[in-house]
Amino acid sequence: MSGAHYVTVTIRHRSWNQGGRISVWGFKPLSEVPRVKLSIENVGKRYSGNVWALRRFSLELKPGVLGLLGPNGAGKTTLMNILATITRASEGTVTWNGVDVAKDPNALRAVLGYLPQDFGVYPNLSAQEFLEYLAAVKGLDATAARRRIDQLLNVVNLADVRGRPLGGFSGGMKQRVGIAQALLNDPRLLIVDEPTAGLDPEERVRFRNLLSDLSGERIVILSTHIVSDVEATATDIALISNGALVAHASPEDLLQRVDGRVWEWVIPSADLNAVKQVYRVSNTARRSDGVHVRVLSEEPPQGARPVAPTLEDAYLDALSVYRTGVAA
Ligand SMILES: Nc1ncnc2c1ncn2[C@@H]1O[C@H](COP(=O)(O)OP(=O)(O)OP(=O)(O)O)[C@@H](O)[C@H]1O
Ligand SMILES: [Mg+2]
Description:
The chain contains ten helices and 16 strands. The chain is an alpha/beta fold. The relative contact order is 0.14. Mean pLDDT is about 90; it is low at about 1-30.
């Protein structure tokens, strides 16, 4: 083992693992970890009833965390199901390290971790049994799998309840079991569809930290419509709307696009509707001195002060430019 570099995961948040540094089971010297590349070329998906959920969608992914952001019905789950080889594309190709996944899905499946949006559990199994069952399905060696499950139950903060039947778990606890099962095989491609839905704020922060720590030599794709989830973790953001790619850029680039066009001022609450008629409102907050409105506008509204853009502003702007072809 001397002289080799090893792939490890650092858990930043103390309570995930008593402040420790956990190693990912199944270490491989970095020299043996192949570089990974996922290419999506002109992918389209037509469901029955002639519904096109995706159209001419192209994206090239290298190691890092991609935040897939888009409104309800945009096509996020459809895309993820295609990438996870659950659904076939109606047109176009997806290649994993140069291999067409429709023709040879097994190379990708061996290194895939997937948390579906509608993740279900067997209610009569305990968390430990459920993870052991899935490890067996994935063909993992039983002894190594048990060690890995121990680590993962700590990582998702469920070690204390590992023996309890899953039927008695809360929604957020089940979601954390889902996160653990997606990490069982130390995946090179990790796809998580709305992973933070149902998590309380503390668990959401833990999950974000875990994702950042996990990246390295793997591709992580995280779908959400909660902009703050990707703000903290994503190295790249893909905005999707109506099945089309609206933008693919770094968070910094997206912020740059709205710089100088975000304004804030305080109005009486009776004026709010009138302001909404004129401006693209990105946020409102009721305070004791009135309503603090935040808008996207080329020209400064009267009495407004310029404010630093957030990713939420950039997201709203990109979507409205896509829909109307006009910037705020
Ligand atoms: N099995 C299906 N049959 C027919 N239409 C479908 C099917 N699954 C999805 N669709 C349609 O495809 C489009 C994209 O759906 P998809 O579930 O991929 O969106 P999404 O971005 O994941 O949305 P959400 O944020 O609500 O999860 C929607 O118009 C949806 O109604
Ligand atoms: Mg979805």
